[in-house]
Amino acid sequence: MRRFLLPLYLFLGACMPVSQSEPATRSAFVDPTLPAMKAFSVPRPKPVQASNADLTRDFMDLAMALESGRDLEVFTRFEGPISVRLVGSVQSTVPSDLDRLLHRLRMEAGINIFATSAPEANITINAVSRADIQRFLPQAACFVVPNVSTLSEYRQARRSNRVNWGKITSRTRLAIFLPNDSSPQEARDCLHEELAQALGPLNDLYRLPDSVFNDDNVHTVLTGYDMLILRAYYDPVLRNGMSRSEVMDRLPGLFARLNPAGERISPRRAARTPRPWIEAIQTALGPGASPITRRAAATEALSIASAMGWEDHRRGFTHYAMGRIIQSTDPDAARAQFRQADAYFARTPNTELHRAYVASQLAAYALTENNPDAAIHLTGGSIDLAARHENAALLSTLLMLRAEALDLEGRASAGAEVRLDSLGWARYGFGSDWSVRAKLREIASLNPLKRARGSL
Predict the structure, then answer these.
(1) What confidence tens digit (pLDDT) does each residue in 390-428 have?
(2) 450 burial via Cβ count (<10 Å: 0-12, 13-18, 19+)
(3) Where are the alpha helices (DSSP H) in 82-129?
(4) What is the pLDDT of residues 275-314, one digit of tens each?
(5) Relative to the CA of 72, which of 101, 406, 434, 456 has its CA 20 to 30 Å away?
(6) How far apart are CA 25 and CA 133, in angstroms?
(7) CA 304, CA 276: separation in Å to the nearest integer?
(8) Cα(70)–Cα(167) distance, rounded to whole angstroms?
(9) Is 308 in the same domain as 433?
(10) How far is CA 215 from the centre of its chain?
(11) Mean pLDDT across the chain, nearest whole number?
């Protein structure tokens, strides 16, 4: 079970459960001229609108399989109250982000989970350096391991069945390894993904459009869908050690009770995602491949998506990936790919956030062509979507794009106000102040007036 770091614009957190045989997946300085970092407050998850037949199928594929495709024979979860401890050199934003997440898990998923300082905690979140994480998993930003609490324990046990997710029959003690030298958003994204997988599903499914249990990394915080899956995971009708058939027998009644509206929704029955497409996408977007290899892999992924007859977000994601890969060498062809991506996203429910990513790309094109009206239109509807999904990196980028468009329209004071608003979010989304400044320069370089004046 492996999750890849996909350098797809703002897709930040690639984190994974890890096992022995099947791994699941610059210094900052203070710039006094930048405003204070902003943070999200009240969560706004979208209510679930899904067929219970689809939810039952999704639950079985998420809970009873690993990412490799290997089936799990027994259902595993924690039983009883779950304690969580945070240790190590922790970023200043992590404790409050963890508190917000634990509150959401209690209120939205109904899980009896709480913070503790006791060393015998069920889940120990270790804040360690990125180098320490990548010493074990070079492609990972963070990971979770069963039956250990510290990095030294994992180092000693990593080649044994003790930490093999495919061999465990219950969950009592786990360790999460979180980067302490990343942006605040990446650390928070890791918290959401790794704690969710420590508690629940070990698999990820590309067919899910509205979930962090998806390797495309579009969603960075737990969605309403994810909370429903976790609520089902910890419902009293299920228990640790159940067989596949026992779990399956209980799910129809369970979802009828938890999601009564889903009884009246027709199932979508999205096709399974073939392994060759997954491997092609991971090659195209993962680390280490040459530009030629990336493009060839993206071309193969497009061919598979077409042959599968996909009309959903996976087809859109494939076009988006191709657009990102060829953008520097063939910008016109890349824009055509982004437009195709948007067309497929528009056909799939629950893909508003996907379309916001595309809007940011198309708005950049509009700026370079001195078309501020188009850039303002494209960013307008996407800004609230990025805020609703708590994606500060995307939100700040959209605000910066909008500020440049307002400047182009001659509305300099309005542009300055929007740009100032973007900076607090950028400090959370991108981290160090030098990276915030770099993002500002990158967006400003799209403005033809500033290029002409040499004012970047």
Answers:
(1) 999 999 999 999 999 999 999 999 999 999 999 999 999
(2) middle
(3) 94-108
(4) 999 999 999 998 788 999 999 999 999 999 999 999 999 9
(5) 101
(6) 12
(7) 8
(8) 12
(9) yes
(10) 7
(11) 91
Domain span at 253: 15-25+45-264
One domain for residues 341 and 361: yes
CATH number at residue 448: 1.25.40.10
For residues 114 and 84, the answer to whether their CB atoms sit within 8 Å is yes
What is the C-alpha separation between 103 and 110, in angstroms, rounded?
Answer: 10
Same domain, 247 and 361: no
Question: In the Cβ-directed half-sphere of 368, how many Cα atoms lie within 13 Å?
Answer: 13
Could you give the CA distance from residue 68 to residue 318 in angstroms, rounded to a whole number? 21
Is 231 found in the same domain as 124?
yes
29: exposed, middle or buried (C-beta count within 10 Å: 0-12, 13-18, 19+)?
exposed
Q: Tell the residue number behind the tokens 């970047």, with chain if given.
A: 456
- Contact status, residue 51 vs residue 355, Cβ threshold 8 Å: no
To which residue do tokens 């945070």 refer?
Answer: 86
Give the type of residue at 366: A
Please report whether residue 441 resides in a domain.
yes
Token code pair at residue 160: 């044994």
The Cα 179–Cα 165 span in angstroms is: 22
Specify the pTM.
Answer: 0.91
Burial of 6 (0-12, 13-18, 19+ CB in 10 A): buried
Whether 247 is in a domain gets the answer: yes
Place of tokens 């379309």: 355
CATH number for the domain spanning 207: value is 3.40.390.10
Confidence of residue 452 (pLDDT cuts 50, 70, 90): low
- Residues 122 and 173: beta-carbon distance below 8 Å: yes
| Least reliable range by pLDDT among 68-77, 330-339, 394-403 | 68-77
Q: How far apart are CA 260 and CA 237, in angstroms?
A: 17
Residue 175's φ and ψ, nearest 5 degrees, are -125, 135
Q: What's the full length of the chain, in residues?
A: 456
